[in-house]
Records
---
Amino acid sequence: MNGLAISSDGLTKDYRKVRAVDDLSLGVPEGSVYGFLGRNGAGKTTTIKMLLGLTRPGTGSAQVLGLDILKGHLAILERTAYVSETKILFESMTTEELVRFNRGFFSRWSDEAASKYAALLEIPPRQRFGKLSRGNRTKVCLLLALAQKADLLILDEPTAGLDPVAVDEVLRILIEDHVSRGHAVFFSSHHLAEVERVADWVGILDHGRLLLEARLEDVRSQFRRITASGNGLPSKASPPVLAWSQSEQFWKYIVTRDSEQFATALREQGAAVVEVSPLNLQEIFLELVRKEAPCTSGSVGATHAGVV
Amino acid sequence: MLIHINPSTGVPIYCQIESQVKQAVAAGAFREGYALPSVRKLAAELRINPNTVARAYQELERSGVIRTVPGGGTFVADNVPGLLKSEKIRRLRPLVRQVAVEGTQLRLTSPEILGLVAEELEKLGGRR
Amino acid sequence: MYVWKCWRDTRWRCLIYSALLMIFLAATLPALPPDRPSAAAAFAFVAIVFFGLLIGIVAAVSLGSVSIGEEWDRGSLEFLLTRPYPRWRFLWTAWAVGAGELLTLATLPILLSTVVEYYWFGDVHAWRLLKVTPLLFGTASTVYGTTFLFSMLLRSGRKGMNAAFGSIAATVLALLGYGGGSRSMVLYAVDIVSASPKLLMWLPVLLVFPIAAQLLLERAEI
């Protein structure tokens, strides 16, 4: 075991003419909380499906809990709890029946945990799944996953559609009962504020490619946005520059480390460094993922943008 | 629990925890020997990653504000050990610089700025 | 656990079709005894076979499209196939439950009618119907297998059902055309009925469908 709960090497998946996942090599350390971010259609769900054996990769390999995704498929499923993006279960079964159905598959299932979570999340036990609201359906899916006492949780948008109280409860359960026990959580989410709170690692996916994979700590302490004005400033996106954009005479760089040195280097080139500021996760995400159209966004629009 | 964090300010969460614990200790709310919640408990309470809490506790232990007992448990230290005066001053200087810069930016006079500092010190009260 | 789920999904259909069959048998059986006018007896016999086939086919399509088909339609396959269970086990369990129900449907009503007849009329004439069971079961199970396979192929129970009915209609038309009318069909049916060893031929036919469906499911991308 290489200390990674999930690792992939060059994972690629094509659907007809579209490359959904492009040479993806990610690493989720054991016991970490990994936020897997990306716009809709970036390839997050496809990646997750490959990890769980629902789809086969085109090329590349991956391992979950040290087991190969192709050969160790069933062993992976025994030790991994999954909540899908669609959150569809059997419409005609009640929560109780779904619990009864699910518990038989997992040797570590905890009935105690199931009742505890059902109560904490305020899930109606005897209503049929088909009749539940979207939020309640998500809660039931989470219940089935959390009570499994898995070694790894793979959650595809686990808090989408949940009210703030439920989100809060879910985060608490995740941290207290799973993360604190050293079990990794791999989740995708659009709620960046939540991710920032709870994750220690982030991976940002766009058009199937991993643009960034870093410890959140590093992102906070070392990533900086440097705005400078001048002429002929560097326009290469090589380390430590993660992304750059230019609009008129203003240049904006996202650097991943040594921001002071970079700023000094710019000054030496005659640039006026306007600002060196930290970035929160949302800002980094938007910088990396949003590509503004050249010269069409009115007065201020990036005319060039380059990403490593 | 006295500790609250706000993830949307620019301040790293572990810093917020650190400063709140220090504040509480300085104000006398956490007395010597007070048992802080475990990393797991605090992380769950605040809905944040346990590593963040662990980091805060590590920093606090490094500066001698708290100590961990081998058997388990984290407690407020009996007395903040003698860091070299020069080290203490070195740590405080950046914050003081910040106050000086901000105050000047806001066009407050030196007496006004110093007065504010004195006020805050007084609010902290007895632990001198 | 999955057996329970499959049963749950199909129990109402099962009960309804059994009930229909039994009601019909109850209505027509009294016409069978040899002391009744032979024309009526012959007619009753044909009616029973016809209606039995009809219900058998409808039940077969219904059961065949529900098991895995409904999981496709509803989108719950993703949940199912992320349980630590090999895909073939899900498939064969679903198939077996449906096949078992069909077998029960084919034999139970006739057995019950036989028992009832014995106690009511003191004599059993429905033994003759037992000879029809192979035909009933054979037809029903072929239709069941076809529907099952179609549902898997088309990734939808609903589409599988439509495809099955379509191919049945086509087969019936072809038979009518080939056989030269419904009279020939009856004679043909009687032929089959009297050649019971042919039952053994049904077995490999039965298994081809779930085996093909298994291969499809194992390669399927969800």
---
Amino acid sequence: MREQVYTRIGETVWRDTLPNGLEIRVISKPHHVRSCAFFVTRYGGMDLRFQLGGRWVDTPAGIAHYLEHKMFDTEDGNALQRLAKNGAEPNAFTSNAITAYYFYSTEHFYENLRILLEFVSVPYFTAESVEKEQGIIGQEIRGVEDTPDWQAYTRLMGCLYEKSPARVSVAGTVESIRQITADTLYTCHRAFYTPSNMVLSVVGNVDPVRISQIAREVLSPERGEAIPRDYGGEEGPAPVRRETRLAMEVSMPQFLAGYKCDTPPEGPEQLRLSAIGDMACDILFGDSSPLYRRLYEEGLINGTFGGNFDILPGAAYLYVGGDTEDPRAVHRAVTEEAARLAREGIDEDFYQRIRRSAYGQMVRSLNSFDTAAVAAAEGVFHGYDYYDFPAVFETITKGDVEDFLRRYVTEERTAISLIDPKEGQ
Amino acid sequence: MSKTRIPLGDNVYLTYVPAVKFKTDFLSAQFITPLRRETAGLNALLPAVLERGSRRYPDMERLSAALDLLYGANVEYTVRKRGENQLWGFVATCVDGAFLPEGRSLLGELAEIMGDLICHPAMEDGLLRGDYVRSERSNLLDAIRSVINDKGAYAGRRLLEEMCAGEPYGLSRLGDETSVAAITPESLTEHYRQQIASARLELFYCGRQSLEEAQAACGRILRDLPRAGAQAPAMVLPHPPRGECRLVREAMDVTQGKLGVGFSVETEDRDAALVMNAMFGGTSNSKLFLHVREKLSLCYYASSSYHRSKNMITVSSGIEFQNYQKALDEILRQLDAMARGDWEEWELEGTRSCIANGHRSLADSAGRLEDFYMGQIATGQDQEPESLLEAALQVTPERIMAAARSVRPDTIYFLTGKEDAHA
């Protein structure tokens, strides 16, 4: 275990790499009551096609999320209950890129950690238990289908991408999950739940050495093989469709527009790109931008308006949206403002202000254990150290942000997803 | 952690919680005022209009610029319902000076901004600016209408509205469309003057600064606050039980049905009702989760909440339309199991741990602490998380069963699909 102190932001992180390839990060928080442990695999909704034992395998949409649900089943019952008995609050989530299992607890931390590592590394499914989950996940999918934000997002991804599995919803569809069997779940577990494809990140008032010992005792000494994945290959800059619209039971029109960016780099450059993308959003349409003020005062946007820059496996995009009576006018205004900024340059004072604000927001984000734990894991997967952000910030210039806007936030790269109120409401 | 609460003026108090573990200072100013149909919309609109501009920061761009310079500090208006009071005001945070290049505290400047928003709003001809009032009124109307976009939240809102019709608790924290549409710059300005003069004002600080420094910061908010008269927060009354359970059914073009069940609780042993509810449907290992979801696969979620100040419980779940009766029967069957003491030892142990975690970990979040103490004040209580936890941990199985026996179905709300409307 190696200790590193980050004096500028007041954080201490312990690191370890086990012989089986597992990376451990422990973020020390000596004054907090609660601690949490996140056991994260680099396997998410987009990992549908991959190579295992030299053979390409295609899996149904929604399988990573289905597997997440089923991992809590153990031979002698249910891990959720075991953790709950021990006073832990367990949960899990699946995103496009990762699946994370975690718990928070104020007592019995090390026992709970042992349970977490055990149940995530030992699969136990039966045909019957897999079948039973169809109803639960089916209702989860039905629930999000009634959610306008989800519809707007999923349909936008379908417009932006041609081959990337970003097109596919993380939970899959009621139809796609019917193809999932115990066998396919075992295959995916064998491929992706190996120590060398996982990170254990812990935040709290804990003993890092003991954490590392427990991980050594519980987990397999085998690294597992490296798994090549297919994300559909290089995409062109243009979306496959410019527009999609859907009528739903909503009170007013809403939209989500996306701007397709190039495949993001790995390593420290990814952290840098992410910071540039965030600043570009603040400058283009953030609360203190001239555009925000103008659209707000014209009554075209309200507090729901906003967006961000997002990096997915092999893909990246900038999005913006909200409730508005005139989605197309707002979308056009964003694209035009980006062109203006790229042409005329960003005002120097404004840039310095946003830079300060962005830095403060990153420091502030460290209050959240979830953010700290997940950022540490993603840093491992992509080859950077999130806590290096103060130094990374110093390398970013106004020109970087202008270049970003000039290259990506353009007419050519954009698509819009519209949700309209149903007629006769 | 030791909390201090001190009076800072006429009907004004400060709750101070020292903490070195956060990266930020947390400052809140909340006006606590009785929730009433006539004023709910005014209270909801007021902070939104105040945030649009003040004497020093006449528009949102200049306000944001000032906050950017304070390293992305933020000031956000809040509107909450706690018990039968409405809380409106501002919550502000800034990065603690220890983590900034300059190393100096920003708290005083942040309080100065908050004070300017509260005491010196942008005015024209002695009234709150007409354009700001109209634009925020339109945004508030949009927000009230948009509750329908989130079907789960909508069903929860409708259940409370039906169950607590005639009680302030049935009102929305945002007010209703008709009264909001009728608000004018004149009526809002008059309401503003009355509120800042006499409504209870509760300030809250959590962070590294000393009590004296926090007090000094609050002084910047209070300096120009014209106080006169003192209006107390409303006392909250428990929900009166209904003789017979009522069913309300509504149809919409949705793919999933939303079931809400409201129960009145008759026992006055509220600690027992709290533990009973947690075990029944308040945790991810509760009866509802294990049976309605895990055993019968009827839903993705089924959970219950205990509204302590009203002494009532609400259950919510998302299900297929045709499973209405099955789900409802199972919810009632699990409540009956609670009344009979039909549970395993681990269920009670797990519930106690979960309650303990929830109370102990409040101290790890400044935002949750603020919400906890504001909620205590608004419901006329003065408890610490530790004392509430202590009381909950002492609840015996007998008291849990007795609490469950005093629970009566009161109102059922079902949001169903259009094709299922006449089923």
